[in-house]
Design brief:
The structure is a single chain. The chain is an alpha/beta fold and 406 residues long. Helices cover 41% and strands 16% of the residues. The strands form three sheets. It has a six-stranded parallel beta sheet with strand order 10-9-8-11-12-13, with helices on both faces. Strands 5-4-3-6-7 form a five-stranded parallel beta sheet. The protein has a two-stranded antiparallel sheet with strand order 1-2. α3 crosses α8 and α11 crosses α13. The radius of gyration is 23 Å and the shape is globular. The two termini are 29 Å apart.
Length: 406
C-alpha cells in the first residue's frame, strides 16, 4: 500500500527475538557502542543482516510488534455478539475513527468508512486519530471531519506531542469509537482509551466472514464491521456496494490538473498514466518495467503515456516518457484524474489513482490483491506471479472497452 504495516508484520519466532535481543545487548555493551554495531554481520534464522544498525532496527521493530501484539490482543473487544438495542440517529453526534498510521495508501483506505459513517449519521462530527501530517491534506474537503489528532511520525523525538495526542483521546467523549484494523495494536489501545458507550474493535468474526466474500479487503472490511455492528442497534442491514476511495477533489483542482496534463502532452490524444516505483519488494525492476512500457507503446499508439514520479524522482523506464512530479498529493491526484487509465504497483499512488476515480490497474507480486486491489470504475488488481504480459494487456483492453461503452 501501501500499505500497512503496524498491522501485518511478518511472523517472528520467540527464539529469533531472544537471539536478536541478546545480540543487541552484547553489541551495545561493547566499548565502541553503536560504532561497533556497524561493523558486525550476524545471521539470524538464516537471514543475513549486513549492518549493525540494520540488526538494531529490525530487532527493535520485531520486539515492539511482538510485545504490543501480546499486550493488546485482548484489548478493545467490541460487544458485537450482543443485541445492543435501538438508538436514535440524532443521538449520535461524535464519532472517533482510529487509524494511527502515516502512509498515503492506508489513510486513503479509510475514506470508504468515513463516507459510510456520514451517510448513516449525516450530522455527525468525526475525529480521526492518525499519525503524521498527511491526513489534513487528504480529508480537507470532508466537512464532517471535526478534528484530526495527529501523532508525530517520530514519537521519541517529539515525545510531548506524542503524549498529548494520546491524552486528547482520553479527555474527549464520543458516541461511537471505531478501530479500523484489528491487527493494529495502537488502534486497539486508542479504542480502549476513548470514552464511548459503543466501541467497534474491528475484529473479524465468523458472521462477517460468511456474509461478505470480499471481507479481506482493507477498505471494505471496516465498512462491513460498521454495518454489522449497527444491526445490533436495530438498524436495517445495508447491502449497498461499499463506497469507493474518494479524495474529494474540487472542480477547480480537477481543472488545474487538466491544465498541467496538457502542458505535458497537448496533442488531443487520450492519456495512460504509469507509476513505476514502489517500496521494498513491491517494486518491479528496471528491465521489467522497460519491457512492459515498450509493449504499452506498441499496443496503445493512439494514447499518450506519461509517468508520474515519486518525490525522489526515480524512473524505472529511465525517463523515456513525459514525467510529472509534485510534492502536493492532491495536485498529483488531479493530474491522474484527467487520465483515461492508470497503471501502478500496489502502493499509495495506486490508491490515490483509485481515490480520484480513474480506472486503475494494480500490479501485485508480494501483497494480496484480495486485501488491497482497486475496485471502482472497472479497476482491477493483477497478480503478476501467475499471469503474463498478454494477460495484462487483455485486462487493460477490457477496461478501455468498458469506458467506451459507458
Amino acid at each position: 500500500m501501501g500499505t500497512s504495516q503496524d498491522d501485518g508484520a511478518t511472523p517472528v519466532k520467540n527464539s529469533d527475538i531472544c537471539e536478536s535481543y541478546t545480540t543487541v545487548q552484547r553489541l551495545c555493551s561493547q566499548p565502541s557502542g553503536f560504532n561497533g554495531l556497524g561493523k558486525v554481520v550476524n545471521t539470524l534464522s538464516g537471514k543475513k543482516y549486513f549492518t549493525g544498525m540494520s540488526i538494531l532496527k529490525k530487532t527493535i521493530n520485531a520486539l515492539r510488534r511482538r510485545l504490543m501484539h501480546q499486550l493488546t490482543k485482548n484489548i478493545g473487544k467490541s460487544n458485537s455478539d450482543l443485541n445492543i438495542g435501538p438508538i436514535v440517529i440524532s443521538d449520535i453526534k461524535r464519532i472517533l475513527i482510529c487509524r494511527p498510521n502515516k502512509r498515503l495508501g492506508n489513510l486513503l483506505l479509510i475514506t470508504p468508512l468515513v463516507q459510510e459513517v456520514i451517510a448513516t449519521f449525516p450530522l455527525v462530527k468525526i475525529d480521526l486519530f492518525v499519525k503524521g501530517n498527511l491526513a489534513p491534506v487528504l480529508f480537507k474537503n470532508y466537512e464532517n471531519i471535526n478534528r484530526i489528532i495527529q501523532l508525530p511520525e517520530k514519537s521519541f523525538k517529539h515525545l510531548i506531542k506524542y503524549l498529548r495526542g494520546w491524552t486528547s483521546i482520553k479527555k474527549s467523549h464520543y458516541d461511537i469509537v471505531i478501530n479500523v484494523i484489528e491487527g493494529s495494536s495502537s488502534g486497539r489501545i486508542s479504542t480502549q482509551l476513548a470514552h464511548s458507550k459503543y466501541k467497534i474493535s474491528g475484529e473479524i468474526n465468523q458472521d462477517i466472514r460468511l456474509r461478505y466474500k470480499d471481507y479481506e479487503h482493507n477498505a471494505k472490511f471496516p465498512v462491513y464491521a460498521f454495518r454489522t455492528y449497527l444491526t445490533k442497534m436495530a438498524f436495517i442491514e445495508n447491502d449497498k456496494p461499499v463506497p469507493p476511495l474518494n479524495l474529494r477533489l474540487s472542480p477547480s483542482e480537477i481543472a488545474e490538473g487538466r491544465i498541467k496534463l496538457k502542458n505535458l502532452v497537448n496533442n488531443g490524444k487520450r492519456t495512460i498514466g504509469i507509476f513505476t516505483y514502489a517500496t521494498g519488494d513491491k517494486c518491479y525492476s528496471e528491465s521489467w518495467w522497460e519491457n512492459f512500457y515498450e509493449r504499452l507503446k506498441a499496443e496503445y499508439k493512439d494514447y499518450n503515456i506519461i509517468e508520474v514520479l515519486p518525490a525522489h524522482h526515480i524512473s524505472k523506464i529511465s525517463f523515456k516518457a513525459p514525467t510529472f512530479s509534485s510534492k502536493d498529493v492532491r495536485e498529483v491526484g488531479a493530474v491522474i484524474a484527467n487520465t483515461e487509465l492508470f497503471i501502478s504497483a500496489d502502493g499509495g499512488i495506486m490508491h490515490l489513482s483509485s481515490s480520484v476515480h480513474t480506472p486503475t490497474v494494480g500490479l501485485f507480486s508480494v501483497t494480496s490483491p484480495n486485501s488491497y486491489q482497486p475496485y471502482n470504475n472497472h479497476s482491477v488488481g493483477i497478480n503478476t506471479n501467475n499471469s503474463n504480459t498478454d494477460d495484462w494487456i487483455k485486462a487493460i483492453n477490457k477496461i478501455i472497452s468498458c469506458q467506451s461503452s459507458n
